[in-house]
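Quick one: co-fold with zinc ion.
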Amino acid sequence: MSTFRVAGRGRIDRSRPIRFTFDGRTVQGYEGDTVASALLANGTHLMGRSFKYHRPRGAVTAGSDEPNALVGTRRGPGRFEPNTRATMQEIYEGLRTESQNRWPSLGFDVGGVNDRFYMLFSAGFYYKTFMWPRSFWDKVYEPVIRAAAGLGKPPTEPDPDRYASRFLHCDVLVIGAGPAGLAAALTAGRSGAKVVLVDEQSEMGGSLLSEPSVEIEGQPAWDWIAATMAELASMDNVRLMNRTTAIGYYHQNMVGLCQKLTDHLPVPPEGAPRERMWKVRAGEVVLAQGALERPLVFDGNDRPGVMLAGAAQTYLNRFGVLVGRRAVVVTSHDSAWYAAFDLADAGCKVAAIVDTRAEVMSALREQARVRGIEVLPSHTVTGTAGRLRVKSVRVNPVVNGKVGAARSLDCEALLMSGGWTPSLHLFSHTKGSLHWDEEAEAFLPGRKTEACRIAGAGRGLWGIGKALEDGAKAGAAAARALGHEAEAKSLAVANDREGRGVTHKELPTDRDPGRARAFIDFQNDVTAKDIRLAVREGMRSIEHVKRYTTNGMATDQGKMSNMNGLAIAADAVGKAPPQVGLTTFRPPYTPTTFGAFAGYHRGSHFEVTRKTPIDSWAEEHGAVYEPVSLWRRARYFPRGNEDMRAAVARECRMTRASVGIFDASTLGKIEVAGPDAVEFMNRMYTNPWTKLAAGRCRYGLLLGEDGYIRDDGVIGRLSNDRFHVTTTTGGAARVLGMMEDYLQTEWPDLRVWVTSTTEQWATIALNGPNARNLLAPFVEGQDMSDEAFPHMSVAECTVAGFPARLFRMSFTGELGFEINVPARHGRALWEKLWEAGQEYDICPYGTETMHVLRAEKGYIIVGQDTDGTVTPDDAGFGWAVGRKKPDFVGKRSLTRPDIVAPGRKQLVGLLTDEPDVVLEEGAQIVADPDQPKPMTMLGHVTSSYWSETLGRSIALALVAGGHGREGETLHVPMPDRTITAKVTGTVFFDPENTRIKL
Amino acid sequence: MLLIHCPYCEQDLPELEFAYGGEAHIARPADPSALTDEEWRDYLFIRSNPRGVHFERWRHVHGCARFFNAVRETVGDKFLMTYKTGEPRPSEEEVEARLKELSA
Ligand SMILES: [Zn+2]
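Sure, here it is.
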């Protein structure tokens, strides 16, 4: 039963009834309703409980600035959204909504007890109440706060919806489709400019939708909207986007738009995205976002049934809903008078218009008199009554600043208006300045930083006629600025509702203001008293007041509360509002889903996964993977029920016993070529390269100018003017960028070209005593004997008929080869070697075994055994530094005072006293385990493994003065025990390198 | 998201294609070994970090991959101009004129 619907009013479609549920109760509305309008039509004002005091609350607005009427919406598994504004959510058949912040029910809520103790919950109570005793924090305060905090409940399942994103370029972006925005879009559109018009509402028209009695060019306002929309829709150069919120205004006229696509549909189309994020780059932006109505601040201004007068007017004219049969209006602005007249004409008994001002236009008084509405000028409101709904309001005359005797007026709805705040959030995102306008008593746009224009109520203009005129001018100016010919056509407006008003701090009262529950921020339960207390306690900056009281910090970002908070803070500080200033508005304009920001970047699309040409073989052979930078790499190849430790132990055994095969394709590869290639290599790497013959390779070390190790890798000289450089897997792009930087900016005279070839080559490493026996029969064009092709050689030849760059090198301490073939042949070569290797009991091994085998030899991994503060000497790589070279990157730093100072952290080996104990990587090391805490830490474990080869654990560590500590016992304190270990050299296995030289 | 003019591609392109490269016009000394510790420290670590006009390096890393120089106003976060590596640092007058142009 729609008992509060008014026949003949509103834009809802009465032929299309829609049922949805609110807290399990079925509610009927019509197509075109929001959750709030449908509930109000059924006489339901109570829609939620407030955050801190759990006070009963109803809708106070009819738009996106709503602080109170937040509901959870649910449409099947995973599709639950908390904090949806009931004033914005369109209803559809089957929609399920639930109220928030109440238990066990909205009508009876246990948390409401907070309201009885409100004196305890004053400003800054988080900072004050829970400070003592310290020991209560973890066990008492924090769990209780956590359980009680937060608005709504987060969803518990993954979001099954899809979200899209698009880029868009246009000439003129018009934000807001009220009278100013429509006029701007029409004018710019007619000029031929490419126009985008966006509005957050389900239909365009803005305030005109709530003002059907206004006439434009002789047409009723709604007919004019229809004609305008039809003309705009007919233009190919105009794109209309409703349900689209401009969430942020970024540099150089880039505006983020979030478009809601399916939240209003009973059955979303299969595969359709729920929301689409648009990144629009506009030549000119017209901000036509209108103004937001302010509440008045008085005791009990938050009771359900107390709402903004403009909202009541919208519910009536747009939705055909009377918010109450008996209403009182309290206002400091003319606009609420018109709302009162509309409601009275629709059958509401308006008991009185209470105006804080002494003087009001006689025309308004006359219209009130005709309707039999009592007018109470120079009056204040000092309280309201009613438990879950307002039932009366207490009003008093104010004479010469003195509050007189109170009288009580019965009402079902109390409509308030404290004036209008220009909506300049987006303008503020651009860091455009705001200046205080004395006459408008508002902040208006000042200096601009972007190519934008503000039109209509956004710059303090009031009335439909002024908005249309200003919008048309802004649209024309924007189009002209982009070279189009445009003219602002003026429109004749009749029955316009112009008006003016004044602003207030708290309304005067005859009661103790210290006990008044006069709310400013409804969502965060901040009262006028809280603001004054914050100032008394020393907060002077508005930013401090905001954080201390949490005023304006709720999900509505203070759209309603900001100006009232400022007026009261300014009064308490004793300064004018512009001297106190505004807090900063930040994107997004309204709460935006994470899904919309993530767009397509979720699941496997969150980050690319790089795979080598041999990856598919590893997958078929049961590899367990690990991520290494963007690559996925085979970590080990378990057989049967092997766990990682068993698999790695076996892979290590088999490789050292016969031969192992390893996919090293992820290694970074850079081709350095040109007449000055050797000079370039001499300058970039620490090592000397001049005397390295073609066909030989060398371990190369790369420093930053600060002298710290940046990267390493084996580098082969293919010919006098060509090097095959390898880098760490994760460092490839960085090294290439560093080379490019020096070549482009420091040594542009060098004739050298560097090219990334990482993905051009597949790289297969064969290691083990049988490596040559396996490989040699496949090689043509290179004598594979130790004499002709010794350790650290490189050759261009063919392997299994594929063109190859063949390296003899080792990262395991075994006889080793790395075969590079064009990537497309990688898997074919791997399979041939695998097949032939069966004779040698060949073993595929992964990165974990590679790590163990290299650690047994003391080969470092840059980034694991170094951390960006390790010099070549620290790492024990002094031998790799060509000290006789006049210069190389980082050379000068190797004699910096702090780099030659004693006590630097140096890389050492660690052997635990208990051989079965494997240290944790990252564990801290101390000299004396009995010293008082905090202990002096000497360094940390960088690499630690079980060594199958040695039958014991091994570790590498960075330890202060480590090179001088060989033989010392150090201590590794762990949560349950302290582990002792001896400092050793870093080479644990085959220190004479006999196995490499086979 | 800023639009950045690549002086090599001669196009205004989205910031996403570019990478910041630190302060500009700090040339690597021709002979670092001739520098005192203090001089080398200054080259390595000391940067101007101004509030306002900053000369800085950028690289069109997801484009032509070239390094170039830019003048950016760090308060409003606005690019005043970009120019090729090796071209002279714009004069104070040129920068002032560009600032005026942008604030007009
Ligand atoms: Zn470029």
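If it helps, The helical segments of chain B are 37-45, 92-103.
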